[in-house]
Amino acid sequence: MPLIDIDLLGVPAFTVAVGEDGSFRYDGLNAANTAVSGLTKAMVVGRTPHDYVPAAVADRLVANYRRCVEARLMQEYEEELDLPGGHKWWRTTLSPVVGCEGRIVQILGLVIDITEKKQAEIELRSAAFKDPLTGICNRRRFERDLENAVAKARDTGRPFTVVLADVDRFKPINDTHGHGVGDAVLKAIAWRLAAGIRDTDRLARIGGDEFAAILSAGSEGAIAVALDRLRGKLAGPLRIGALDLIVGVSLGSALWAPAMSTDDVMAAADAAMYRQKDLRAA
């Protein structure tokens, strides 16, 4: 019999009995909770977390309940769960209930469905890291990815490659055909570059007509293969409306070395790209 009658509460709630052996078993679930979670008393009351959800999820639930008991304080956190009512985000507040002997005998849980709020946050973060024209990552996301790539390479000793791609003579395209055609060219270049890299590589637009990629290629031989693949994807005219445009793209690459910072590897790739651009212009 639960110590707290949560059926009288108008907010989604549940209670967990805390055994003397430290076990956790649900002993209450109110109608407001059922309405939002899809769970029923028959599904959970009398059961432990491991009795009704996958082990990995149950382990997280038990860890939260144990933290509440050990701290003897209210705990509040956000969690993502797949329940009969669907995949949702919750803000959960746990409050310890102390028995007459001073031992925590029960946990009162109050939950709020925050799924719409979390989805809005995720969409906002996605927009903050996405180039609105091409749909690929923007410079802000690339800089974060590059920092992570350098940190991982330092930890593992496995190098990676940065490739920079710059559209040749892009300004005359805009001046001759208009910015609408120029935007279409950038989109097409982005699509071709994306088709030339692996799913695990990262591509971004980091400037007006400049793109950058972080590739897993870890040797000069692997870089040569990657660049050949990219050049193959970039070859051929771009069909923009009624126009067939021959658009060149200069590529430059740099293999990360242990002493290199993010600025160092970018500078090396940039220098290689401009050497290629000079050769193409000659």
UniProtKB/TrEMBL annotation:
**Pfam families in UniProt:** GGDEF, PAS_4
Q: Which SMART domains match?
A: GGDEF (SM00267)
All copies of domain GGDEF, residue ranges: 158-282
Stretches assigned to the PAC domain: 67-126
Q: Which CDD domains match?
A: GGDEF, PAS
Tell me the PANTHER family matching this sequence: BIOFILM ARCHITECTURE MAINTENANCE PROTEIN MBAA, DIGUANYLATE CYCLASE DGCP
Kindly give the NCBIfam families that the UniProt entry links to this protein: GGDEF, sensory_box
**Name of the protein:** GGDEF domain-containing protein
Species annotation: Plantimonas leprariae
Q: What is the lineage of its organism?
A: Bacteria, Pseudomonadati, Pseudomonadota, Alphaproteobacteria, Hyphomicrobiales
